[in-house]
Amino acid sequence: MKKSQLMEKLIHGIFLVLGLITVGCVLLITVYLVISGIPAIREIGLVDFLFGKEWASTASEPKYGILPFILTSVYGTAGAILIGVPIGFMTAVYLSKLASPKVKSVMQSAVSLLAGIPSVVYGLVGMLVLVPGIRKIFDVPDGASLLAAIIVLAIMILPSIIKMSITALDAVPKEYEDASLALGATPIETYFKVSVPAAKSGIAAAVVLGVGRAIGEAMAVMMVAGNVPNMPDSLFQSVRFLTTAVSSEMAYSSGLQRQALFSIALVLFLFIMLTGATLNFFLKREKE
Amino acid sequence: MLNQSLSKKRKGFEVLMKALMLLSVGLTAALVLFLLIYVLGQGVPNITWELLSTKPSYLTEKIGILPDILNTVYIVLATLLIVLPLGVGAAIYLTEYASNKKVVGIIEYAAETLSGIPSIIYGLVGMLLFSNSMGTCLMAGALTLVIMNLPTIMRTTQESLKTVPQSYREGAFGLGAGKWRVVRTVVLPGCVDGVITGCILSVGRILGESAALLFTAGFAHALNGIIDGLAAPGATLTVALYVYAKEQGEFGVAFAIAAILMVLTVLINFAATLVQKHFAKRRSL
Amino acid sequence: MSNIISVKDMSLWYGDHQALKNVNIEIPEKSITAFIGPSGCGKSTFLKTLNRMNDLIPGVKITGDIRYEGTDIFSKEVDVNNLRKEIGMVFQKPNPFPMSIYDNIAYGPRTHGITNKVELDEIVERALRDAAIWDETKDRLKKNALGMSGGQQQRLCIARALAVQPNILLMDEPTSALDPISTSRIEELVVELKEKYTIVMVTHNMQQAVRVSDYTAFFLLGELVEFDKTDDIFSQPRDKRTEDYITGRFG
User: What is the pTM of this model?
Assistant: First the structure.
């Protein structure tokens, strides 16, 4: 009897450890990023690091200002949201409310496919279609630019926005829509004036999820944005994002430069945690 | 009164919204079609038996992607082998053992946080955690992917465990079975659905992953067996695509790989839907 | 008293299943007509046909003639949105929108093009007064409607339907989800409303039909079995089936 009780306790303990692994991973990641990110910030100075306008890590007198990366990430994400959200949102309303079941199911598979395509494939197509296209259409010397990155990011966040908005819109009780129709509103008026407001927390969560995806994307952006650490003054400028700043120099970096890359990762991590907290806020409100 | 038609303003709203919706759906559909046709069109002609069955050679200046295919297989197997017991165990803890709501909340929050972290950060942390100690190798990449895929396996398993009727558990307890026996005989068989779904989703994610692998698993194209392979640096298909396109300008090979990845993505999506439908049907019986 | 709705030989199918068979009825103006019958008898389906809410269900086929003030409601010239503005509806379960009380009431008028704030304020107040809920809501118009009790929500839904100034109010078992006190308040309200509106009400509760309605229609298996003054139907039913039903022999 005693032995079997001991056994049960032991097994309970094993499962507890397994359960806590995720927590451990989050802590580990946070601690590692903080520990490896702090030294360079200390050495460079927080203000110079965050608000310095120049990044010249390999110059004889190196400069480590990451404002260009922060602004590029912010602008790039904002641009992607500006293009991706309206298209995704409108698609979601159509598929959730107006489309025939057949169209809805075909389009949902198409959207899943879009979500499953590896980011390097987006990067590749962007490199060979979008970049030359921008060069020709806008008559600029190089199409690898902020604009190219924005378009690629807009496409990449589309599936998350569509999927999550559809889930939110599908969950709107039919009673609301019936009430609106019975008042003499047309179906389309009903969807936009009753269903969409009723699903607004879920749709907001979809937007925040898109923000997270856009801020965190590295490889596709790496392939189309040009990667020069310019301030993002124009859409046609070759720019570097927070993500690509980390990946483009990591392979050959050393010393303070390498430490500064870890600091950039820490900044990126903070951005992500912030969007994550916002996302949670909206999801919680959606539940209520 | 009744035969009055809609006011101009309302009619305008109708027409505008309908147009915007159709435009958006059309754009999304066109995008998917374009990507499929373009990538397959550019890639499929470049897929040759030679490409698939050889390794790159400096002597003949020919590129083969067999090592990358094998590396991908190795890393998928290694990752799943490690992540499955961890993820399933965590899910079982959450649904069967955990009694403290706070602990459950913390674990679920941690899982959500993990799934929100971008792969480039996983790559960096993986490099610090694994590659710095064991060297840049497939195993270091696999371990990084384990952390990334843990929330997926956990969530799908949890979902399938929730569908195991409480009465089964009560029945087993009623027969005097201990907790562990109940978990082993009643709960574990019930999570097969979730494990399979989780595996499919994880394979998809691993196939598409590049940023997390670049600095952990490296980008060598050496031909190895699975044991040596895991200990050596190596590129998966996705990483190879990146290197060939971005660093070497070998667009033919890049598109060939892209086409392969595209077909695999379609297959994985198809499998995921099929499995979900199958399990949904079984559950409703 | 003239008839506001007249229905001739109306039948309705869901796919292959015939849910209503040759219904003929004339509904008198400014009165309360109750539809009774066992569940599944078609009374709700028939009610929803009157403002064409059944149009939304795929696979529905309707034959016969329904006239509202002499106009065929299925004619091509009739705009269904205007029809629904004239013939309002209150549902079984209170279904206020997840918005403020004010916005709930203003939704209909706004939809139909009223944007003037003063005008809207007036409409909202009048609708809430007509639905006897003004005193309870006037200090919390900006509060979310979902915070009200079930009975208040249902009266809000009545107010919302009144705000677009309909002629007819269709009510689909409006008290079935409410407690007895809320139910009697709604019943009182309905009786007051017939001064200004024609009310057609589906009810599963025969006492309710007796208490509030002027006319009663008894439906069974998709057929309109009997339609008469409420007093007559409950005291001297002409049809054996009606008698069986109201004496509680089935249903």
Answer: 0.91
